[in-house]
Every structure is written in structure tokens, then in C-alpha cells.
Amino acid sequence: ALILGIESSCDETAVAVIDGAAGTLAARVVAQRIASQDDEHRPYGGVVPEIAARAHAETLAPMVGAVLEEAGLTLDQIDAIAATAGPGLIGGVMVGLVTAKALAMAADKPLLAVNHLEGHALSARLAEPGLQFPYLLLLASGGHCQILEVRGLGQYRRLATTIDDALGEAFDKTAKILGLGFPGGPAVERMAREGDARAVPLPRPLLGSAEPHFSFAGLKSAVMRARDAGIHKPEDIAASFQQAAIDCVIDRTRRAMATSGPVTALVVAGGVAANASLRAALTALADEAGLPLVAPPPKLCTDNAAMIGWAGAERFAAGLTDPLDVLARPRWPLDPDAQPVRGAGV
Ligand code: ATP
Ligand code: MG
Ligand code: FE
């Protein structure tokens, strides 16, 4: 089936056409575009929800037309319309979902209300056609840091989450502390390449603890103290931060692997999965366990519409379409049983 996918939950406006029947990544992504709002948000040092929603509203409709044209398709030839329905910044989510509803209504096509996190979770199956359920997923993004057993479409068991900051948030805050601007993750990674990861002693919160949860707030505070001390080069602080964060992730993921059921692969997804050092460390961890590591290409890790269209294609194939009155959801955990951990959000 041909699915039109729309993503607008944060600060990328994105549209894609996905061919769910194709057998390779290249053939599955018929056409796609992404407009990043980095320039709009940069003066504020972070994403401003009102600016994001307005930018999505200006960019989205013409982008749908452009992507359909690039795909050589008319709306009539599309089988269903998929859009992120949450979680995310509600103004932006509503722009995307309402646009999808209007297109679905006008062309009389089914609507697919996609969970953005399910988009990240299934991006690995878009990139790697052979990947079978169940797999163990490290979801590391700007708003989430979780380990989930992905048992099937819509079937998630959460093994771990963060008790404070998400991993991408820790990268973004470190970037801010080091004056690297916005968005922070890629800038920290670039700077870390020039530094010595052993130069600055930094804490590794929760390392070795029995529950595989994450914590990054203490690491961020230590980065701030290291900067204020004025002894170390920023390159060394960036490299030491990245190494400490990765050490935590590897330890916590190893712990989760010990408690999960049998899986076919270790998968990493979400924006931070674009980080080359993290991918290398996870490859070694997966090797240790005799599992393949599946990491989508970096452009499918950060927010995009191909993953939303693909999740839509999987849901469409399973007959899981949604009514036109489906609501946008600012919060929407993948695991319905997920309980907050020590007061942290899900
Ligand atoms: P969520 O998916 O939880 O709703 P989001 O959609 O805002 O959050 P993503 O777009 O999936 O998040 O990921 C963005 C995050 O990934 C940002 O925090 C960014 O700094 C981080 N990131 C992107 N590239 C890298 C990189 N190369 N190294 C480290 N972090 C990175
Ligand atoms: Mg972004
Ligand atoms: Fe995301």
C-alpha cells in the first residue's frame, strides 16, 4: 500500500510517501522532505512551542504537494494518510493531524493516527526488512530514554526509563553549558572528537543498579561544575561527558538484556541513535550477547516522516485505521502499563 506520512511533533516539518509493499529501504521511501526549524528556534536556545506550531502551519500544506509531485502520484493514488497524533508539542501535533484529517476527508481515504514513539520503534523495520519481532529497543531521543521489549505492532513492554532527563536532553544541556548552541547533540559529538574522554572525571549515575533505569541530571550538573572550574578544555569536557553518558547507557542496556525475554536483535532508535560513538559501543554490547545490532541510518533516527509513514503502513496492513475524530495527545506512552518511576514522566 502507498501511505502518505506526516510528522510535526517537535521542530521538524516532514512529509513522506511510503510503499509498504517494497522490499528495500530505498524502494520503500518513494519520496520525502524535511524542513528543520533550527534557524527559527536558535535565538531562544531551544524549541519554542508557539513558533514551532506556526512554522508547521506555514510549511506543511505546500510540502505535501511537493512530495506527492516528487513521487509522481496524486492524492487519489494514495491508500491511507498517516500522521503523528502524539506525543509531542500539542500545537504542532494538531497542525499535522488536522492536515491529515482534511486530506483523508477530501480524498475519502483512511486515517492512521501514529504514535511518534512507535514511528521511532519501527524505523528499524523500515531500514532492515528482515528484522523480526520480538526485539529489544533502546529508544534514546530528545524527550525519552527507555528500553522496551517490542513484541509486535502496538505490543510494548517497558523495562526501563529515565528518572530525570532524557539522553538527548543531556546532550542538549551539555551543549548549552559549553556554549555550542542549538541543536546540541551533533555539536557535542563533533567537539568530543577533538577531546580526551579520560580527562575529566565525571559521575556515572545508577551504574550497576539492579533496575535498568537511567539518570542523567547529576551528570549534567557535574558538566556544569567542570566548566565553572575553568581547568579543562571544552573539548575534553565534551568527550568526557559523551563517554560517561555512553558508559551509563551500555551498563543499563546490559542489565535490561539480562532481564528481557528472548529477542532477535538489539535495536537503537531515536535522535541520539545518530551518535557514532554510541552506535559503536552498542555494536560491541550486542556482539557480547551474540545478537545483531540494528541501527537505522542517522537520517531515520532523528525526526522524519518516513518512519511515520512506515508505522502507518504496518498499521494499515493490520487493519488498524482510526476514526476522523481521533484526538491529538501531548502524552502517549507506548506501554499502557507504564508507571511513572520516582515521579518522572512517562
Ligand atoms: P521524542 O522523540 O522523544 O519526542 P524528539 O522527537 O524531540 O523527542 P528526536 O528528534 O528523536 O527527539 O531526537 C532529537 C534529540 O537527539 C536531540 O536531543 C538531539 O540533540 C539528539 N541528537 C541528534 N543527533 C545526535 C548526535 N549525533 N549525538 C547525540 N545526540 C544527538
Ligand atoms: Mg529537531
Ligand atoms: Fe522523535
From TrEMBL:
GO biological process, one term: tRNA threonylcarbamoyladenosine modification
PANTHER family documented for this protein: TRNA N6-ADENOSINE THREONYLCARBAMOYLTRANSFERASE, TRNA N6-ADENOSINE THREONYLCARBAMOYLTRANSFERASE, MITOCHONDRIAL
Pfam families from the UniProt entry: TsaD
Binding site residues for substrate: 139-143, 172, 185, 189, 275
Cofactor(s) the protein needs: Fe(2+)
NCBIfam families: gcp_kae1, T6A_TsaD_YgjD, T6A_YeaZ
Its EC number(s): 2.3.1.234
Stated family: Belongs to the KAE1 / TsaD family.
Example of a GO MF term: tRNA N(6)-L-threonylcarbamoyladenine synthase activity
Catalytic activity: L-threonylcarbamoyladenylate + adenosine(37) in tRNA = N(6)-L-threonylcarbamoyladenosine(37) in tRNA + AMP + H(+)
Keyword set, alphabetical order: Acyltransferase, Cytoplasm, Iron, Metal-binding, Transferase, tRNA processing
GO cellular component: cytoplasm
Species for this entry: Novosphingobium sediminis
Compartments where located: Cytoplasm
Domain Gcp-like: 29-310
Protein role: Required for the formation of a threonylcarbamoyl group on adenosine at position 37 (t(6)A37) in tRNAs that read codons beginning with adenine. Is involved in the transfer of the threonylcarbamoyl moiety of threonylcarbamoyl-AMP (TC-AMP) to the N6 group of A37, together with TsaE and TsaB. TsaD likely plays a direct catalytic role in this reaction.
Designated name of the protein: tRNA N6-adenosine threonylcarbamoyltransferase
Cofactor annotation remark: Binds 1 Fe(2+) ion per subunit.
EC class (word): transferase
